[in-house]
Design goal:
121 residues; mainly beta; three-stranded antiparallel sheet; 2 helices; 11 strands; elongated
């Protein structure tokens, strides 16, 4: 953690704090990833897209590995995806019905998952 996180790019508040990978402003509730905003010079809300979080609140990014936290039924398969299944190399997408992760799962192939059923590995 940094001793002095950067001021809020939205309201210039100096009382920001770090929470996991994000920096949070207590005055306007703006959240951003400091590395992204310093590289591009643009706040993530305008240049980076929406923030996708897993079931426990960790921020997910393309290429992360995740673990499925609950058993999932799969149409056309006698057995579903078991809790604890590791998924490598996810890709964040704007999917249908809240399915915001595109991935390949061994034994099942390509599919989309909701971020609420995975945890960052």
């Amino acid at each position: 953690m940094n001793e002095n996180p950067p001021p809020c790019p939205k309201c210039s508040c100096e009382y920001t704090y770090e929470m996991n990978a994000l920096v949070v402003c207590p005055e306007c509730s703006h959240e951003w990833v400091p590395a992204e905003s310093s590289e591009t010079g643009v706040p993530p809300a305008e240049g980076w897209g929406k923030v996708v979080k897993d079931s426990v609140g960790n921020v997910l990014r393309d290429g992360d590995s995740v673990v499925v936290v609950k058993a999932l039924k799969v149409k056309g398969s006698p057995s579903g995806i078991k809790a604890g299944t590791k998924v490598r190399g996810i890709r964040l997408v704007d999917g249908v019905d809240g399915h915001d992760i595109d991935c390949k799962i061994d034994g099942f192939g390509a599919m989309q998952l909701k971020s609420g059923v995975v945890k960052k590995a």
